Amino acid sequence: MISRIKKALRTIRREGISAGYSAFLRQIDKGRRDREYRDWAEQYDTLDDAGRERLQAIAAELSDAPLISVLMPVYNVEERFLCEAIGSVRAQIYPNWELCIADDASTEPHVRRVLEELAAQDARIRVTFREKNGHISAASNTALEMVRGEFTALMDHDDLLAEDALLQAARVITSRPEVNLVYSDEDKIDANGVRFQPMFKPDWSPELMRSLNLITHLCVFRTEVLRAIGGFRTGLEGSQDYDLSLRFIDSISPETIVHIP
User: Fold this and answer.
1) What distances in angstroms separate CA 139 from CA 106, 150, 177, 228, 240, one per listed residue?
2) Which pLDDT score, from 0 to 100, does residue 258 have?
3) Is the separation of the CB atoms in 152 and 220 below 8 Å?
4) Which stretch of 8-12, 34-38, 52-56, 73-77 has the lowest confidence by average pLDDT?
5) I need a labelling partner for 47 at 20 to 30 A (CA). Which of 108, 162, 166, 203 fits?
6) What does each C-alpha distance from 14 to 9, 10, 19, 71, 194 come to in angstroms?
7) Which DSSP state fits 234?
8) What is the pLDDT of residue 209?
9) Considering Cα of 14, then 20, then 24, then 27, what sign does the dihedral take?
């Protein structure tokens, strides 16, 4: 509440009382919506042991389970967030994955140590250390060169995957062999592990996609197409994922794009 009042006071100083009051009301409404979402997520989007066992059985029964390569560029990320991001991949219910990490010449010494330690613990974690910093597009392309899977999932170095994220993508891929792109809903999570700001996405909408990056995270691309369009374009750092996605969808049929609610 104190932080909301401070934000409102700053708005009053800049824009006047009416604008400050409106800003305060928006903050109150946002807090209410965040609380409602946390309650919803706890009730409907949190796995218990029984749910986890059910999904493990589904994963074990998948035929022709595809290898999903998780592509992760890394640069000077805090140790905690890096460990948690990689940990969320290792905690996947779906086992047929590889994590392709390209470190973009990080200067923080803990990055190499953590990556080497975790790669030694799990053969599915593959790491390349770039000799020169090239920024996120170049680092992502280095990781893409490592990919061996038929499908590639994009992941930032401070993202977290839900335990069943790759399983749900694999279920779509095995049930619809023609699929080229799978994308899911997403939310944010703060430093205390509190989920907020959900993004419940519609099924495929080319109009909306050309207005904003609809698919963002998690999105899983057919690797063959990713490589055919040339991967990530340097010089577009900050919007490299959006640019990649727009070029990708232009090269496939809309019927091969699937949304996972």
Assistant:
1) 11, 20, 30, 18, 11
2) 98
3) yes
4) 8-12
5) 203
6) 9, 6, 9, 43, 31
7) T
8) 97
9) negative
pTM beyond 0.85: yes
Give the per-residue pLDDT at 244. Answer: 98
For 86, list phi and psi in degrees, rounded to 5.
-65, -35
Question: Rounded mean pLDDT of the chain?
Answer: 92
CA distance 166 to 170: 6
Q: CB under 8 Å to 70, separation ≥6 — which residues?
A: 89, 97, 98, 99, 100, 152, 153, 155, 166
The secondary element (H helix, E strand) that includes residue 99 is strand 97-103
Q: What share of the chain is helix, strand, coil (3-state, %, to 5)?
A: 50, 15, 35
The owner of tokens 């946390």 is: 38
